[in-house]
Design brief:
The structure holds two protein chains of two kinds. By secondary structure, chain A is of the alpha+beta class. Chain A has three helices and three strands. Chain A has one domain.
């Protein structure tokens, strides 16, 4: 199935533009292999799901358009954007925008440090139409 | 993760699974058993152990594939593992949404949510504080249809 992107600054377009500009900084990082690199869970090859058409471009014009609508505490629940990252989807979705603290440790020295965190995480669980045009069921973590 | 107040200039770790080859943002398939939903009670959980991720150092480097921004130096990602238990627990508000502009509809709760998570990589480990509902900024639990399932 041919895949189309409707937004002018998707990841692929961004990579193409930067590579075309002949930028030297981090040029090795622009390889599609790394852009799609699988951290070891097999997801780069088998998610099958398609992204929602909308989203945001947090660092435009320097970074990519992301197919995700971050939660905004200032927006009333009835006015939220689609919280799913997957389109053609029917199921449960959870998102959280949460902060907290914790302890970082250097395992070599045992030195510890108090750190703050912000986590934007969630899940989708249900049926979806995949890039193969077929209907699938699955569970996804947003990490 | 931040060495001071939450903000890009203080960020020192950013754990995520990267965007997949279909442009789906930071989503990874997990076993169905990783998620439990009791929608009538506005409750759900997401529990994953030892998920392989990347540490991109900061969100700017994550979204520029390590190029950084004019004010943020480029950093190459390193491999890491994270474990987490996220709990959506009880409705603060609820709303039915039918958004034709974005082609999605469904029933949604805003909830109190807690998280307990840890991370590990070659030169760094992290353990969050015990789950603390006071640190929830905004959380949503929904049952929705979008795209071709929107009517």
């Amino acid at each position: 199935m041919k895949k189309t992107n409707t937004h002018p600054t998707t990841r692929r377009v961004f990579l193409g533009a930067m590579a075309g500009a002949g930028t030297a900084l981090g040029a090795g990082l622009l390889s599609p292999k790394l852009a799609h690199a699988d951290p070891g869970n097999g997801h780069a090859q088998c998610t099958l799901a398609k992204p929602i058409p909308g989203g945001v471009a947090p660092f435009a014009p320097f970074a990519i358009f992301i197919h995700h609508n971050p939660l905004n505490p200032a927006v009333a629940l009835a006015s939220i954007n689609d919280p799913s990252q997957i389109t053609d989807f029917d199921g449960f979705v959870g998102l959280t925008h949460i902060r907290g603290t914790g302890t970082g440790t250097n395992p070599a020295t045992g030195a510890t440090q108090s750190l703050n965190f912000q986590a934007d995480m969630g899940f989708s669980q249900g049926r979806f139409i995949g890039i193969d045009g077929g209907q699938h069921e699955g569970t996804f973590a947003f990490v | 993760m931040y060495s001071g107040p939450v903000g890009l200039v203080n960020q020192i770790h950013d754990f995520n699974v990267h965007i997949d080859s279909n442009d789906v943002f930071w989503m990874v398939r997990v076993p169905d058993s990783a998620v439990k939903v009791d929608f009538d009670q506005a409750q759900a959980s997401l529990q994953v152990e030892g998920l392989n991720v990347f540490d991109d150092h900061d969100i700017a480097n994550s979204l520029t594939f390590g190029l950084g921004l004019p004010t943020i130096p480029g950093v190459a990602p390193v491999r890491a593992q994270v474990s987490f238990d996220v709990e959506w627990n009880g409705a603060l508000a609820e709303a039915d949404i039918h958004n034709a502009g974005q082609s999605f509809q469904g029933s949604f709760f805003s909830t109190v949510t807690t998280i307990n998570w840890s991370a590990e990589e070659d030169e760094f480990q992290f353990q969050s504080e015990p789950p603390n509902p006071a640190t929830n900024l905004i959380s949503v639990l929904g049952h929705e249809q979008n795209g071709v399932f929107f009517s």
